[in-house]
Amino acid sequence: MASTTDFKNGMCIQYKGDLYTITQFQHVKPGKGPAFVRTKLKNVKTGKVIDNTFNSGVKIDIARIERRPHQFLYKDDMGYNLMHTETYEQIALAEELFNSPDLLKEGDTVEAVFHADTETPLYVDLPAHVVMEVTYTEPGLRGDSSSTSSLKPATVETGATIMVPLFINTGDLIKIDTRDRSYSERVKA
Fold first, then answer.
1. Which of 13, 23, 52, 180 has the highest CB neighbour count under 10 A?
2. Burial of 146 (C-beta count, 10 Å sphere; 0-12/13-18/19+)
3. Of 1, 13, 17, 73, nearest to 39 (Cα)?
4. Which residues form the Translation elongation factor P/YeiP central domain (predicted)?
């Protein structure tokens, strides 16, 4: 048990039967009335963000979560097979636990987040950016090489489709932001 004075960004709490991480919090002491804490809570399973206000000093159940480094090995009918990079223990996780599983290449390092008390996998964090080769995209029009306002679809090596600027061609390496599946920049080979 902890109180609202122990709040930190990234802390995982048990609230209304679900696990939430605190993404923002602010202690407020109005001129009249008791102090309170405004928070933004992100549901660990669904990713939905809610606003909530706690009275100051309220007791909250803290959930212990552990981030463990894993390497993605392969995908089969059991799910996504990962290997812990320190203990070499292998596990298979369901696709629902991944944010953008189609941006995952064999050998990529990810962080699997587990509920420490129950050893239940909660979600898997991909690296913030991945570099992929464009396997197919329509050729850009001549003269549009500097314009980034127009986008076109491009298929990358894992089969995912990403919107890229017109100057990107088949065979180019691009950096992709896995959090919102957006093009970041072209990478020199």
1. 13
2. exposed
3. 13
4. 67-122
| pLDDT tens readout for residues 94-127 | 999 998 899 999 999 999 999 988 899 998 999 9
- Give pLDDT tens digits for 88-102: 999 999 999 998 899
User: Which is it for the CA torsion 95, 98, 99, 104, positive or negative?
Assistant: negative
Domains of the chain: 2-62 (2.30.30.30), 65-125 (2.40.50.140), 129-187 (2.40.50.140)
